[in-house]
């Protein structure tokens, strides 16, 4: 069984190398033998390469941000601009009171969050509400618990990983909405015209059944 596990991990590592993912001092035996430090480092490398580095946000002067992390931070700042008590400056303490998570959800789905009833002092409730709403209404896995965030020094990588899931979800929803509008505008012009028995022109609109 061990040899099979090593072969499987080798295939995964080879794929990462083909994708030009930098792997430093990690081999299949490290993962199979349960080296926590190297395994967690590899997981973060995968998240960084395939979830975070693809993020590109243009600034007001139409320039792309310098790094994917900066781009994600800028996206969060843009989406939460104007929300009281929300001032995102980092991926650690700026999220402790839970308001930033709720603001992100409210900005895109105001029907899910009554943001103006939230208070900065009730961090545990704020975080729990945001995490539950994201999981139950948006289908985003609950990667964090309130105590993981409402602490003196929250883990930056953990918060980035969770926030990235919001970015990709809402970006996908925006793309689908734009595509839906585009299709909706094109359908009327593409439908064949027919004459109405009483005169005039109608369009043949197919029925859904």
UniProtKB/TrEMBL annotation:
Calponin-homology (CH) domain mapped to chain residues: 1-51, 66-171
PANTHER family: SPECTRIN/FILAMIN RELATED CYTOSKELETAL PROTEIN
SUPFAM superfamilies from the UniProt entry: Calponin-homology domain, CH-domain
Matches recorded under PROSITE patterns: ACTININ_2 (PS00020), CH (PS50021)
SMART domains, sorted: CH
Organism: Patagioenas fasciata monilis
Name this protein carries in UniProt: Calponin-homology (CH) domain-containing protein
Pfam families, per database record: CH
GO molecular function, a single term: actin binding
UniProt xrefs under InterPro entries: Actinin_actin-bd_CS (IPR001589), CH_dom (IPR001715), CH_dom_sf (IPR036872)
Keyword Repeat appears in the UniProt entry: yes
Assigned keywords, A-Z: Actin-binding, Repeat
Domain of life: Eukaryota
């Amino acid at each position: 069984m061990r040899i099979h596990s090593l072969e499987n991990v080798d295939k995964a590592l080879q794929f990462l190398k083909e994708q030009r993912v930098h792997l430093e001092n990690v081999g299949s035996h490290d993962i199979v033998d349960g080296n926590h430090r190297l395994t967690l480092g590899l997981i973060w490398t995968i998240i960084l390469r395939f979830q975070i580095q693809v993020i590109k946000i243009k600034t007001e002067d139409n320039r792309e941000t310098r790094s994917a992390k900066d781009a994600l931070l800028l996206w969060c700042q843009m989406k939460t601009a104007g929300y009281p008590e929300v001032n995102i400056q980092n991926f650690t303490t700026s999220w402790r009171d839970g308001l930033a998570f709720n603001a992100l959800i409210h900005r895109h789905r105001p029907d899910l969050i009554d943001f103006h009833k939230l208070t900065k002092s009730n961090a545990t409730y704020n975080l729990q509400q945001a995490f539950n709403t994201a999981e139950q209404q948006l289908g985003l896995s609950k990667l964090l618990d309130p105590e993981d965030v409402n602490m003196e020094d929250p883990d930056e990588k953990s918060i980035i990983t969770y926030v990235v899931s919001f970015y990709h979800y809402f970006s996908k929803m925006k793309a689908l909405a734009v595509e839906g509008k585009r299709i909706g505008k094109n359908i009327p012009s593409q439908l064949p015209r027919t004459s109405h028995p009483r005169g005039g022109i109608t369009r043949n609109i197919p029925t859904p059944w």
